[in-house]
Amino acid sequence: MRRQQTGRVAATAVNSVSGGTAAFFISVLILVSIVGAANGMILTGPRVYYAMARGGLFFRAFGTVSARFRAPVFTIVIQGVWAACLTLLGMFQERFTYVIFTAWIFYGLAVAGAIVLRMRRPELERPFRAPGYSGERRDSCDLSPGFGPPKSPLSVTVITVGDCSFR
What we know:
mainly alpha
């Protein structure tokens, strides 16, 4: 099988296996997924800036709410302008890679913060019970069905530390 240069990897793979109709269907599913992800970011991103501004941690203008729409319109507009600028400054793939890389750093910091908080302050009330925080030892296969056991020492370490921390 020869290797192709394509920007539509999933559609090309499905097209070679199942034909054009299936490739079109996969393309539509990917488009729906992208629109859903963008919707989530558009709805949640400005509210983070809003909450930070209300708490005095960000510029005060970002903490205002429109009387007409009862939403942080200024913050939404600024985020849209910033997204447009980033889109015009370079290739989408490059910007997307930067955003995802940075997001994973902060996801990791959030998880580390939760682990540290659980270890340092076990007596704190937990108003929300998250799945996986039951305190029981769990096998990694239970937490990731379909993916099988971890294959790298790093993933084994992360699972072990998390498992011990949430007891």
